[in-house]
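Progress note, sequence design subtask.
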């Protein structure tokens, strides 16, 4: 029986590489029934701000797997990223991107590299919650949830175990973001105890990225947060040889989306010279996801044979290594001719049938004892030469019964004991604490005192403890 598959043909080179990919899938005997969707630039320009037509949403409700060619996001404001919308609406929390070298057929300094990046796909700065709070300061909220961390970390460990991988590396910036990235790392370390068969390590994302660029062979499976994973996976794909060759899987509990990692390449669209490999390898991941492992194996090995035969599209063509420069259609025909073959120099792939990854829903934890202990009030303030001591005097007049503990500017403590050299913007965070637990009405009455003071408060953030542990960071220099 054929499995239903939604298709987005995309923009730019999208239709060309989709046609090539489907021809190969058909020749390999993939059991699929296609449902083309209206999605992309034309849909954006027709007034749908997400780039997805209402009919496409209806189809996706029943056809839960999507193969998507790259889309052109129109220039200018007001258009929401189609990818982020799809990932979040369909609950595609895991972005899985294998990055493998194909030396000597594709040039790379790291011929033995073979790593997989498992990137959290829904949270982090991609919540898209941004505000302008003063003339000078804008903010973007980084939201990290415990269930979100648990799902992606569990996925990475389960993926590693099921695919015979040996090591999982967690990359975060928890030395700076102790609560958000700290939660991700703590979840990794806690869940790691259930996987003693896997080697585990944590690195700070900056040195981790540098090492992925310089020594990618030392990595196996990497799990990381959304933004870091976004950047790192392009670094890794390029280090492996070319971003043009990488595919990615976006997996959720009920939906899955597969795509190339490159864009719609409008500069070469319509010329029959685009490399369809990124979309084809995404389709291989899709076949494995759908349980059509034998077909996935046939297609992937035929593709490796084609690379090995030196039949290359222009983007990976190298004088002295390549034998024939071909266009998109001819490349697809060459892959089709190689169906059934195994590569000799490159390691053949095998996709033994595996039970689907079982990612249990994160458990509901008992609620912590939560106590309100203070409030950060953010101000736009531009008076008195932006002198923090003057601001603190105004605030001290309003504080009782709470106490002004500190004032920071862009996170750095400027009162008490600030340094005159610290650059200050017009955006101030003023921390008030109580001598014991507070109630909401204490915060409201403080804000009411602000109301009469003429100070322009732009936001407030409650300070809580959870089971006695502070749920807020200190000011830098506090
Ligand atoms: P791009 O990846 O489209 O192109 C970058 C360069 O790589 C270009 O020179 C292009 O010709 C080349 N290239 C890309 N894919 C190739 C292929 N398969 N074969 C041969 N050469 C290839 O990136 P861009 O130019 O920054 O973006 C173009 C458009 O794509 C933008 O509208 C962007 O928003 C969109 N985009 C979409 C996705 C997606 O749908 N997932 C991802 C990234 C970018």
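Output:
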């Amino acid at each position: 029986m054929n499995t239903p598959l939604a298709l987005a043909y995309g923009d730019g080179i999208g239709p060309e590489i989709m046609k090539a990919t489907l021809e190969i899938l058909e020749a390999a005997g993939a059991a699929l029934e296609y449902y083309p969707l209206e999605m992309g630039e034309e849909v954006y320009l027709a007034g749908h701000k997400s780039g997805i037509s209402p009919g496409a949403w209806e189809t996706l409700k029943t056809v839960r797997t999507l193969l998507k060619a790259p889309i052109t996001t129109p220039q200018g404001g007001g258009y929401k990223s189609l990818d982020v919308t799809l990932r979040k609406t369909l609950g595609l929390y895991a972005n899985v991107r294998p990055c493998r070298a194909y030396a000597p057929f594709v040039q790379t300094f790291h011929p033995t590299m073979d790593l997989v990046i498992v990137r959290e796909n829904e949270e982090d700065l991609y919540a898209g919650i941004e505000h302008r709070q003063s003339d000078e300061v804008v903010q973007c909220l980084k939201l990290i949830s415990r269930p979100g961390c648990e799902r992606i970390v569990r996925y990475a460990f389960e993926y590693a175990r099921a695919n015979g991988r040996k090591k999982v590396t967690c990359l975060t910036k928890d030395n700076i973001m102790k609560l958000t990235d700290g939660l991700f790392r703590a979840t990794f370390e806690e869940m790691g105890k259930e996987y003693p068969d896997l080697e585990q390590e944590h690195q700070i994302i900056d040195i981790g990225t540098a090492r992925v660029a310089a020594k990618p062979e030392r990595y196996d499976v990497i799990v990381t947060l959304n933004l870091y994973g976004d950047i790192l996976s392009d670094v890794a794909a390029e280090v492996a040889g070319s971003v043009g060759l990488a595919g990615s899987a976006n997996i959720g509990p009920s939906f899955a989306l597969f795509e190339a990692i490159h864009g719609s390449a409008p500069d070469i669209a319509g010329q029959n010279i685009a490399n369809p490999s990124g979309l084809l390898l995404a389709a291989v991941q899709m076949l494995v996801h759908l349980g059509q492992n034998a077909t996935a194996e046939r297609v992937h090995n035929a593709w490796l044979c084609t690379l090995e035969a030196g039949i290359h599209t222009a983007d990976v063509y190298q004088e002295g290594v390549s034998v024939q420069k071909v266009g998109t259609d001819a490349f697809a025909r060459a892959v089709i001719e190689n169906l059934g073959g195994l590569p000799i120099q490159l390691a053949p792939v095998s996709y033994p049938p595996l039970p689907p990854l079982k990612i249990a829903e994160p458990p509901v934890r008992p609620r912590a004892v939560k106590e309100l202990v203070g409030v950060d009030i953010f101000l736009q303030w531009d008076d008195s030469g932006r002198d923090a001591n003057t601001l603190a005097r105004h605030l001290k007049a309003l504080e009782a019964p709470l106490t002004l503990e500190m004032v920071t500017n862009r996170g750095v403590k400027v009162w008490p004991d600030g340094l005159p050299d610290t650059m200050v913007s017009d955006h101030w965070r003023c921390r008030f604490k109580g001598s014991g637990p507070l109630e909401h009405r204490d915060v409201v009455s403080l804000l009411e005192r602000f109301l009469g003071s003429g100070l322009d408060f732009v936001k407030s953030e409650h300070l809580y403890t959870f089971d006695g542990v502070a749920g807020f960071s200190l000011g830098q220099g506090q």
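Residues 146-162 form the longest helix (17 residues). Work on this subtask will continue into the next period as scheduled.
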